[in-house]
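Spend some time on the protein that follows and explain the fold to me:
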Amino acid sequence: MTEKQIHLPIVFHFHQPVDNFDFVIEDAYNKAYNPLIEQIFKHPQVKVTLHFSGNLLEWFLKHKPELIEMLKIMAKKGQIEIIGGGYYEPIFAIIPTRDKIAQIIMLSNLIREEFGLEVKGAWLSERVWEPNYPSFLNQVGLKYVIVDDNHFRSTGITQNDTLYSYVTEDEGKTLRIFPINEELRYLTPWKPTYLSIEYLKNKADEEGDRIALLISDAEKMGVWGTTHQFCYIEGEGHKDGDNGKPFIPAFFDQIIKNNWIKSITLSEYMEKYPAKSLIYLPTASYDKMEEWVLPTKERKAFKKIRENLKDDPKKHDEYLFLKGGFWRYYLVKYPESNNMHKKMLHVRDKLLHVENRLDILVQKECRTEANNLIKKAWTEIYKAQCNDSYWHGLFGGVYLQFLRFSVYTHLINAENIIDNLNSEFYSYAINYISITPIDFNKDSKMDVIIESNILNLYIDPSDGGTIFELDYKPKSYNLLNTLTRWPEAYHEDYEIDKDEVIVDRYKKSMLRMRFFQNDIMLKQLETDQYYEFGTFINGESKIIRNEKNGKSAIVELELFGTVKDPESGEHYPCRILKIIDVEENQIVITIKGNFQKISGEEEVLKRILEQLCLGVDLPFFFNGDPNNFEWESNQVLFLEGKTPPLLKPFEYSGFHFKAHDESYDLNFELSFSSKSKTDKESIKIFKFPLNAYAFTDVGYTKIYQGINLLTQFKLKKNFEYEITININ
């Protein structure tokens, strides 16, 4: 009788977001990366497939030569295989094909140069799969990918059928697909090793061609919770079955001891066995991701449905065909994610335009220098494609403000390089300003971008004529890297103080106009729990002027709407003009309003003017250490000269506000004035922090997303206010 056997390829995925803090990576190295690689090194009979994102591999090469040396020894012996993918861990689905191929080649070349290995497999960031992947992966010589068994469910493949590999194709280009084993993924390292061995024994068979693919984030083996202790510390492992032996060496010893478990790399398995059959998979990611991406209301409903089906054995067939959302919907669910993505596409279009003219306009002796700058700009764009900041699930993702800031920094760096290329090689003026009407957000509505060598302003006429991005290019700094406090499904799931959860009704953009009562309280504005009397807050505006005048650019927007009478509820018509004038590092915003004269409605207008006021949102974002944020006003004096922290709610009357980010030596200064000769009174200014409440891998936490200033302007039949912003 033939002995039953099963193949066990093990894959560990090592990744850190681009620009994550060195101390975070160092902590992961000490708790997980180094002890894990050391244990693999000490168990040469165990074969392992490894994946490193390019930026993390760079960090190891620079800071941890001892780890690199262990990897080189194991690579030479054939103990490890290293797979590739996108260098900076992009989601392939949302970056152009040219960039996919370039990033894959970059990582494959680094692996070949450092370890002498030919890369055959591709890691898919967050296991996001789309049916066209075989075409471009095959084009760069990759032979296989790893996806969740979740990807297979809706095709009719049973759980036992996921114990094999399959082949798929697109445009005639084929690709082998390996399903990840969900059971093993949840057993390791959380349960004693004997449970994993029992599972494998139950799945082994006489034919001997079955494969149970175990995959894990390397961070799960040492960084998460108390995993470092029970994975590596003697006596701290699982008591049941392992007698306290650390999980990783205990698991590797079990594999060696049970010779019916065949330790193998994925490439070796491919050479030994053909695919079970041809298959075509739908768009998919792992099951949790497909839940997280759904709109909040639908996510709540989906979670209940899935739990009911999964926990009921009688409904197993229904569960197989249950599909959640589509990864790209994050670009809809979080407009801030979409903004980063479309900024990336916008900047790369500018770079392509420069690159395509290189041979025509640049003299031969200068091409090397120009090519080096272009290569540098592409690297900045690739870094901005790192997936972590574009989504949110168990991990902070888009809520992690420093990751969003990293994306913008790299994109603005690329823009600065493009500016230098244009001025040095194409004879463009180094000081310039431009106005571009463009459907930036790809929502079929026209936006306006003002760009100069100093500032970028992105204006959305369809969202109340607001500014949603403000870049100060000398410091590669987006001052509107704010995040709206979105409602999340989990806000109702955890034992939290519901009063702590603040959500916004509208995207947190600059120049959003609000009409509220004169006696408004700061807390009402901070929590966005006040009654809105106007229709201008997100109304459609019309661009009636956009022109350049020397070094300045002017955009004028016209909004028609109504303001509600607090007593009768009648809506009174009003016309508002917003004039945005940009020159060098200064922005002058003029807001002009006019209430029409309507015969017989004089009392309605009188009540509106007496009881209501105009508020204008002026949010901004600082990325430095909040302990080193400072602010001041010419109209505010504090005892002992000590100003309250910038992030502490505060209100005062005045004409001036200035904030300073010491970490970046950046100033953001505003002044306010009324153009009415009779109006000499100071303007009320509200200041409060923007904190989002998110559930992350460290639990439920409050995450700083910026600061909001909100002015309170008096209403008149005809009013005109001016806001001047200086950035330096």
Notes: The chain has a mean pLDDT of 94. The chain has 21 helices and 28 strands. Residues 287-327 form one domain.
